[in-house]
TrEMBL record:
Protein name in UniProt: Alanine-rich protein SCI7.12c
PANTHER family xrefs: GLYCOSYL HYDROLASE DIGH
Gene3D superfamilies named among the record's database cross-references: Glycosidases (3.20.20.80)
Highest taxon above the source species: Archaea
Length: 405
């Protein structure tokens, strides 16, 4: 059984790896690069497992390995990896060695397309919507069709896979961004989704799609909302009203061949990039497994993640189902797990990504873990070590001890 946990570099310590081994964890995922994020969000939290850094705002897009700068001379400066100034040393190398010493599988966790500083430094490399605007908060996401983006990511993956004998490489944020909206419908969210940059236009043409035609269809959807929906004085959340919105959304997708083809194209772009990067890893580290962190399958297709396509590339899929912190129903766990297994090849493992930070309690963890044992999945992984109170960690240890597989 896969028994994993995610870890941030500022929480890494060789003694921590030894402790987590005694707790029964089989896999630890260390972020080899990360995003700017206040480490007490979401939730009324501090960093429970770090006596030196109870609070911490991570650097913007820092990496945590010793970068060979000569590799990146042909990469635009805004896409070159910059080594952390605050977390010194080769954290990745120390992590891999510590895992090997403690018989834990080392996982290099690689946030892939979320790269806000690079997009702010050069907006032309980011995804854009039908109006040419960056659709995500803080201009976060790189465009997977951009040649410079693909070259930069490939060079980083190549360096990591040549330098380190890790056991698993985990791709995170291998998708398009969510659309932050308040007064919206599923159709409006879709209509404002990326990407319509010049590189996407060229690749879409090769795929048999005219993105200008798609843009016209989506603009009509937006204008309909402006004229009829967004003029309402009151925003409805009644169940009957929400049902009507989703029925209309379903009908539109069933009947609109242009939108269906566009959604397929976006899934193709994400899968192509994942395949390109995975081939580099397999070439340099043939024993390493490949995994991808995915949105739950009920909605992953809206972000360009196709479980069937991705399962042909990776060894393991991790479904991010954080329940209590995001006020989601626990019923999502079995629903999304069964849905994923329907799409995923039988030889590809499925791991449930579960929250272990407050307001999640030990009782919540036990209930979710026991639920996972009854599902067609291969294990669980908890997010994240630093955010997890001691009581929750002890509950995980207890549950792991009860499962000897």
């Amino acid at each position: 059984m896969y028994k994993g946990i995610w870890m941030h570099p500022w929480d890494f310590d060789r003694d921590v790896i030894a402790e987590l081994s005694k707790f029964g964890f089989t896999h630890i995922s260390l972020a080899v690069r990360y995003i700017e994020e206040r480490q007490n969000w979401p939730g009324p939290n501090i960093i429970f497992q770090n006596f030196q850094r109870r609070t911490y705002t991570s650097e913007e897009n820092a990496v945590y390995w010793n970068v060979e700068k000569n590799r990146y001379l042909n990469i635009p400066p805004y896409l070159r990896p910059v080594q952390s100034q605050e977390i010194q040393g080769d954290v990745v190398g120390e992590f891999v060695r510590a895992c090997e010493e403690n018989s834990i599988r080392s996982v290099l966790w690689f946030p892939t397309l979320r790269w806000e500083k690079a997009v702010r430094d050069n907006p032309l490399i980011g995804v854009v919507d039908i109006y040419g605007s960056h659709p995500s908060y803080k201009r976060m996401f790189l465009c997977p069709s951009n040649p410079s983006v693909k070259e930069a990511l490939s060079t980083m993956v190549e360096e990591l896979s040549e330098k380190y004998e890790f056991d698993e490489f985990e791709f995170d944020f291998i998708r398009y961004p969510e659309i932050p909206t308040t007064y919206s419908t599923p159709l409006l969210d879709l209509a404002l989704s990326p990407c319509f940059c010049k590189y996407c236009r060229d690749e879409a043409a090769d795929y048999g799609i005219n993105l200008e035609e798609v843009r016209g269809v989506l603009k009509d959807i937006v204008e309909w909302h402006v004229q009829y929906f967004l003029r309402l004085q009151e925003y409805c959340t009644d169940l009957d009203y929400c049902e009507a919105m989703y029925l209309d959304f379903t009908k539109e997708l069933l009947e609109n061949d242009i939108l269906k083809k566009w959604l397929e194209f976006r899934e193709n772009q994400i899968s192509k990039l994942l395949l390109q990067l995975s081939k580099i890893i397999k070439r340099n580290n043939p024993k390493a497994e490949i995994s991808a962190d995915l949105y739950p399958p009920s909605g992953s297709w809206l972000l360009g993640q196709n479980y069937k396509k991705i399962s042909k590339i990776v060894d393991r899929i991790k479904i991010m189902i954080y329940v209590r912190p995001f006020k989601r129903s626990i019923c999502r766990i079995p629903y999304e797990a069964m849905l994923a297994r329907k799409f995923v090849k039988n030889n590809v493992e499925i791991v449930l990504g579960l929250a272990s930070w407050p307001p999640t309690t030990p009782e919540d963890i036990e209930r979710q873990f026991n639920m996972a044992l009854k599902l067609p999945v291969n294990g669980v992984s908890f997010y994240s070590y630093g955010w997890t109170p001691k009581g929750n960690l002890l509950k995980i240890k207890e549950l792991f001890e009860e499962v000897k597989v």
